[in-house]
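Q: What would this chain look like folded?
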Amino acid sequence: ATGTAPLGVPLMVWGHAAYALATLLALAVLLLEPPAAARARAGFAVLATGMAGTSVFLLVGMLSLGALCPGCVLSAMLCLSLGGLATLDVARGGSWRYPALGVLLAAALVTLALTTGARATPPPAGETRRLAALARHLHSSGARFYGVWWCTGCREQKDLFGVAAAALPYVECSRDSAPAGVDTFPT
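A: My prediction, written as structure tokens:
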């Protein structure tokens, strides 16, 4: 899971932190005095460009699997828009002609982060043992649960098992190619 959790932190957490920081830096450009605003502008340019580059990298990975996550595509479009704004700002010498657009895009990223990735209701306490037994049975029977980290359906399936999800025979297909015949997720 190192591909989906750089430095042991889930990719979604990195994204949420980047969205929040982009919003704060865009607001800082508007609200701070010139020397501090210039530093915030430079920080925003670096962050927005990095977010855009990361989005392109992740989209290429998803395209190579032949499946796209709608939320991921929306996030990538917003990140690419922020990266474009930052690039225009640098090209124009830091004039930041459209600060409100930058703040709105960054706010849209934060809203996206807060409204996606909702988790299913955890199973009732009495179900935990039964679900753990089911997960162990699936594993020992040779069944496999093929999925990708960005798939909402895969995440929901795992969430239905609660803590017993760790025993599921889950196979992450974003790092390696999926087995023949597996072209949708979850399978």
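The chain has six helices and two strands.
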